[in-house]
Write a structure and sequence with these properties.
277 residues; mainly alpha; two-stranded antiparallel ribbon
Length: 277
């Protein structure tokens, strides 16, 4: 029997995709993968695009700068890329795909996402090379304070990222996702269907430890020193560690929604098949 939330979720998906309210098991499974894959891909791509902005977490929360001393050489505050705001959605979605579609599902959507991230940056770079229209430059010749402003230069500076940053981001993303899937299923073999929080949080903590340092090393080592790469990597990982713990209730809510949508027997069968993949 479906719970009320599951009934609503099923009805919503059926209306959105113009499908009948009661779907065959195979179509429900495919529809679920399309929805989870779409959420995963969209948020991963958005995180890469908006990641050019660095914001101050302390200012956002109205607290003094952390001034954390790392490796005796660097004093760091919690200045984070804007991409981390939505990256937790990728964590949760990845764990759900792991749970119901196994490592093959994670590998397929991760490779597809990496391809589209690369494609997006190629298109963005090409667009920044287009000659700007004269009237566009004139209309936007000053900022809101009346200061001279070159909107074409700003557009290019915001959207262009160095080749090393793009390469580091995609490499870290793929390694992190494949490692996440491996650790998730290694823990599942030990815990069975119990302790979802352990395999989800544990796999995220391991994969993001690697991700945090791979992207920084490829993108910034030389001109950054090794010490600075390590220091910034530790700070980023502290944030991801904290978020992974805080997301546990959201993961259980999403799990409940999917179990309600599929029906408990089918959800358990799908999870068991995923565990064997």
């Amino acid at each position: 029997m479906l719970n009320p939330v599951g009934l609503f979720f099923r009805s919503f998906l059926s209306r959105s995709f113009n499908l009948e309210p009661v779907l065959p098991a195979s179509r429900q499974r495919n529809q679920l993968f399309v929805v989870l894959g779409g959420i995963f891909l969209t948020n991963a791509l958005l995180a890469e695009v908006i990641g050019v902005k660095i914001f101050s977490a302390e200012t956002l929360l109205g607290v003094p700068p952390a001034r954390i001393s790392l490796l005796d050489s660097f004093v760091l505050d919690f200045n984070l890329t804007a991409g981390v705001v939505i990256w937790p959605v990728v964590f949760v979605t990845s764990d759900l795909i792991n749970e119901y579609f196994g490592r093959d599902g994670v590998r397929r959507i991760s490779i597809l996402t990496a391809f589209f991230i690369a494609y997006a940056f190629v298109v963005i770079y090409a667009v920044t090379l287009l000659p700007p229209a004269k009237f566009w430059l004139e209309v936007n010749a000053t900022d809101r304070l009346g200061n001279p402003f070159d909107i074409n230069e700003a557009f290019a500076k915001i959207f262009r990222q160095g080749l090393r940053i793009i390469l580091g981001s995609i490499t870290a993303f793929l390694i992190g996702q494949l490692l996440d899937a491996y650790v998730f299923h290694a823990l599942r073999r030990r815990t069975g269907s119990r302790q979802l929080w352990l395999r989800a949080t544990g796999s995220t903590l391991v994969s993001q430890l690697v991700d945090s340092f791979v992207v920084l090393f490829i993108a910034f080592y030389n001109p950054w020193s090794l010490e600075q790469v390590i220091a910034v990597g530790i700070l980023n990982y502290l944030y991801k560690f904290s978020v992974a713990i805080l997301l546990t209730p959201l993961l259980y809510l999403a799990h409940s929604l999917i179990d309600g949508y599929l029906g408990k027997p089918q959800a358990e069968r799908l999870a068991e098949e995923a565990a064997k993949s």
